[in-house]
């Protein structure tokens, strides 16, 4: 009877325990951060990943990358860069307009001269015929022609000099602007290189510190466990403390040595980059100046040749539909005068074309130089975008590395607590088991 | 006596069998019905890489046109309008190229989820541990001949809920707070840029940047954070009432789940 009662009671207890277990399962399913309880199999857990990331030893590095990106964005998203592109376009347009005006002025000057030359040619023909006894006095005509020719020569020289001066000023101004842009671009590139190296070294330092801590963690834990043993005598306790201190010293010495080496590396890199920037700038400025000098010299030579060509045939008769030969001139004289007219006309046309071509070359050249300036600016912008991409990649890699490490810690916790699925990215806590606090402790221990 | 003991045992067994039915819904929400898909792996299948290549070519052409258009434009509003216009063009092309592919992938995921009795499939990125990885099954289905066949049944009720954050953000008071913050940010950015321009050295620039970040953080704390907390509380309340275990953002959800967006927006209004 007693045995039967005992058996009945046992069955009750067994059944009751199972039911209570199931009910506990149900309650556990709605456990939240406020009431953490041991989880049971088949439940869902979650972590607040952003909070865990902030506790990770590499968070400082991640935060610095975020700051770098924000700073870069602040620098490059601003309206001034966009405006600089537009400014260059406006400047190029202004230059184009000025050159067009200059070309028109040149053409007009040539047209005026054409009329003048036609008059001069006519006068010269009259003088020639007069010299032959059939027209007005040759001396008077020759004097008038010479005076007009001198005036024309001066006008042509003035125009040529003015154009040359304008060209020289503009080319030099462009060079100065290009040098400034180049300097900024080179300095920016050097700064990026330096920052990248500094980041790399810091990353290595962090990794090194982490690896040292990981390597010694077992020994440290063992020593700490010994210390927590109350039965430890004073001498042994001191000994363990010394061992712990020695461990700390070993780690900090190793880290300090690495940091010193890194500082030297960075200092050397800074000097190297500084020298590099100066050398690059000097080399590129020399190339630029040489090119500019060549261009100015070419322009001077070409202008001089044009002037010589233009001034040599003065006085000449240019333009018109043909030579205006008075009636009654002997056929040989007529053909001589016609040949003279043809020659001067041809020379004048060539000269006019050369002058116009010269202006067009000037215009094309200046426009090209301005485009080059724009390209320097675009290169700077592309550099900023490239730097942003690189920072984003670095951030992504680092974040991935941190999340993976956190994931491993969380997995261990979840397995211990019998949780089958753990997710992040939970919008609001509703049910499920919040493993954030447990994971935080484990991640913080990585700092030690 | 033996009969009584047997009766007792039978009663206990019945109680055990009834327990899962009587316990709250959360107990039934066994985690075996949560699946996940690696979307990065899906994007590597040929159809997606082809579409990506086409889109990259289109974008490259568009970038050139955009640069040309912007070169002569100085006015900020016009620049913004042109940028928007090009963004729309890119978006349209993206939808043309990827829309049919996404639809096909969605059918494949639904089909796999149905065959594996999954109530929900989420993005792999939010799964830290556990769950069923159905990526390869989906890839096999997509790479196989013919179109995947959609499942006959709708997804079973899930203990994982989701909200559409864009709809929540569209609630007038949240929208106006966000807009106010954006305006504040733009003003601060403008002011900071002007200060950076006139700064004499790196230390000055750094100080301007820190000041800018602090201003944004303060504003966020005073204007945005309280609303975020309120929204989170509202989501948690709705989720608890509906017996959900987790609530995730719609962007992380791929298939199934319980939509509580309208309940949350009603609670917040």
Overall helicity of chain B: 55-70%
* Name of the CATH homologous superfamily of the largest domain in chain B: Skp domain
The CATH topology of the largest domain in chain B, please? Protein Binding, DinI Protein, Chain A
- Put simply, the count of helices of chain A is 8
Number of strands of chain B: 8
Radius of gyration of chain B: 26 Å
N-C termini distance of chain B:
65 Å
* Average pLDDT metric of chain A: 72
Strand content of chain B: 5-15%
Mean pLDDT of chain B: 85
Give the CATH class of the largest domain in chain B: Alpha Beta
Query: What's the assembly state of these chains?
Result: heterodimer
User: Which structural category do the helix and sheet elements of chain A fall into?
Assistant: mainly alpha
- C-alpha geometry of chain A: rod-shaped
**What is the count of structural domains of chain B?**
2
Report on the architecture of this protein.
The complex is a heterodimer of chains A (448) and B (269). Chain A is mostly helical and 448 residues long. Chain A has one domain (68-397). Chain A is 83% helix and 3% strand. A 3-stranded parallel β-sheet of chain A has the order 2-1-4. In chain A, α2 (49-55) runs parallel beside α8, α4 packs antiparallel against α5 and α5 runs antiparallel to α6 (234-311). Chain B is of the alpha/beta class and 269 residues long. Chain B folds into 2 domains: 30-155, Skp domain (Protein Binding, DinI Protein, Chain A); 157-269, 2-Layer Sandwich (Protein Binding, DinI Protein, Chain A), CATH 3.30.910. Helices cover 68% and strands 10% of the residues of chain B. Chain B contains 10 helices and 8 strands. In chain B, the strands form 2 sheets. A 4-stranded mixed β-sheet of chain B has the order 4-1-2-7. In chain B, α8 (172-198) packs antiparallel against α9. Classes of the chains: A mainly alpha (448), B alpha/beta (269).
